[in-house]
């Protein structure tokens, strides 16, 4: 019988649009859909080209996972997630979604252990990973300054030679008994290894 689930380390990326609720509040649903279609199209293209898998879309949030493939997790997978976060923001800069909306985003990235549902990973399905790292990434994204990519200390420690960071003040987040260290990704550095 083939393995259906496995424990492994992954990097999770959450991105959302700053001020999305107020932006769409008075818009017709067809305009909201056009905005989402443009936004999700740009984000998913950058995620996939960076080696990630889009796990889900919720409202304006996109959750993507890096390091679930056969080669497994390593510094390159985590660095790819950070590069994707920076690249998505660059790709959205100057774009008018639905032909008229310039948006700002914020990205949160966390690295940790999860259980991976292998069938869902192959099918790009919802619920492909389970673990607290998912909520950590979502919480970090909520605390990210506008137009920035922030990461947890685990992501920073495995990518420190590949990405330049600025340390930010720790944040207290709901559901966590201790403050989370926060680092702003500035730019790629070093060389990404290709296996």
UniProtKB/TrEMBL annotation:
It holds the Pfam family Guanylate_cyc. Residues 11-141 form the Guanylate cyclase domain. Signal peptide: none annotated. InterPro entries: A/G_cyclase (IPR001054), Adenylyl/Guanylyl_Cyclase_3/4 (IPR050697), Nucleotide_cyclase (IPR029787). Gene3D superfamilies: Nucleotide cyclase (3.30.70.1230). Belongs to the adenylyl cyclase class-3 family. PANTHER family: ADENYLATE CYCLASE, TERMINAL-DIFFERENTIATION SPECIFIC, ADENYLATE CYCLASE, TERMINAL-DIFFERENTIATION SPECIFIC-RELATED. This is Guanylate cyclase domain-containing protein. It comes from Paractinoplanes deccanensis.
């Amino acid at each position: 019988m083939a393995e259906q689930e496995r424990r492994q380390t992954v990097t999770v990326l959450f991105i959302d649009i700053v001020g999305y609720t107020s932006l769409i509040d008075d818009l017709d649903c067809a305009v909201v859909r056009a905005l989402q279609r443009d936004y999700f199209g740009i984000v998913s293209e950058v995620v996939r080209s960076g080696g990630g898998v889009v796990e889900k879309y919720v409202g304006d949030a996109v959750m993507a996972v890096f390091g679930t493939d056969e080669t497994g997790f390593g510094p390159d997978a985590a660095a790819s997630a950070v590069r994707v976060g920076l690249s998505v923001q660059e790709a959205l800069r100057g774009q008018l979604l639905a032909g008229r909306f310039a948006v700002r985003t914020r990205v949160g990235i966390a690295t940790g252990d999860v259980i991976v549902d292998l069938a869902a990973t192959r099918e790009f399905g919802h619920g492909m990973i389970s673990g607290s790292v998912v909520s950590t990434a979502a919480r970090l994204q909520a605390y990210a300054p506008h137009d920035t990519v922030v990461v947890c200390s685990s992501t920073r420690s495995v990518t420190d030679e590949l990405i330049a960071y600025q340390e930010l003040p720790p944040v207290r987040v709901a559901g966590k008994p201790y403050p989370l260290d926060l680092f702003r990704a500035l730019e790629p550095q070093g060389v990404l290894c290709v296996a």
